[in-house]
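Appendix B, record 7
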Amino acid sequence: MALTGIQIFKLLPKTNCKECGVPTCLAFAMNLASGKAELDACPYVSDEAKEQLAEASAPPIRPVKLGKGVRQTTTGGETVLYRHEKTFFNPTVLAATVASDIDTAELDKALNVYNAFQYERVGLNLRPELLVVKDAGNGADGFAAVAGKIAKESEFNLVLMTQDLAVMKAGVEAAGFKRPLLYAATADNVDDMGALAKDNDLPLAVKADSVEALQALTEKLTGMGLKDLVLDPGSREIKQALEDQVAIRRAALKASNKALGFPTITFPCEMASNLDMETLIAGMFVAKYGGIVVMSDFSAESLFPLLLERLNIYTDPQRPMTVTEGIFEIGNPDENSPVLVTTNFALTYFIVSGEIEASKVPAWLLIKDSEGLSVLTAWAAGKFGGDDVGLFVKKSGIMDKVKHTELIIPGYAAAIAGDIEEELPGWSITVGPREAAHLPAFLKTK
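Structure tokens (predicted):
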């Protein structure tokens, strides 16, 4: 049972050091009890207290690490039903299915295609993470060969999908070093699959015919010492599948049902007859509340919108996306190249830098920290004032890179030109266009 704020407070050092970010230990305890703080934020809590506080500080849905290497990811770890309440933490993991009887040449071709699915968006590299090796009945050797090839020759991590224990053991032997997810323990094989997962320290999916039936299986597996579980309530009809996802999330968060406090795996590939419909269903599960979404295949026209949906949903709504403050070189600028300044809101940066690149005019782009606000909003909030911008230009180091003394500011911040001139004596402040789309023509005239 989770501890109350007062119970947590009794276990804290009571120093009121403020190093956790709040003024008192009591306030920190209340935040910890409500899931608004992490125990690691307190630098002085004792090891004994950490043990007792583990239950209170752990998220109601256990985070489960999947795979190893550059595409290692985590699913679960969520604390709220709706992201505006706080945030969603670990994005839905996207997977495609590979049959174990696939021809070697076809597998090589598929891996080449899948590895190419990487998209840059607002400075982030968007890509899928998992491949599901599905037992096609061609024996343990064939299953192990495909799993091993994917594990050794690609960045993808794996889900090993079979009900045959011997086949699963062969897959684990070939690809266990990549920490695959085993799919799945059922009422018929729970003891054997649980033992295999425990012996190899691997995450295990649990499948049942209903949400209620899942609980008995997870309780048995956790009793065996397994902690990294992924839930599949078995529903393959769209309406029921959505209801099950919501029921599992609500049970874990609202009813503190630890038997259901694990991430889920969903199978749009088993709910539709074509990839277009699969994509629609997958989009539903990205929003509510699939931890892993398994498709029959990856294609650009279905994968890209899912990656964008995932990015939008799992971007913290309380923390704007930003880029680092500093000087950015666009197109190999020299000492005579124009100097522009704008805010560090990620979308602003990428739009402005993209338009500068399109102009073919090499330039220096100064990015000032505005706490992730756009130009007009930052100016209105006092985060992009003339004095601050002028001081930033002085300290940025741009004066050592250029011979001229002209600074181009955004058109929406024209009002700060005079204050910048006062802060930068001898500099000429030019007001640029309001819209980034007009930058190419503006720079070419310069």
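Remarks on this record: The chain has three domains: 5-57, 64-314, 326-445. Residues 238-253 form the longest helix (16 residues).
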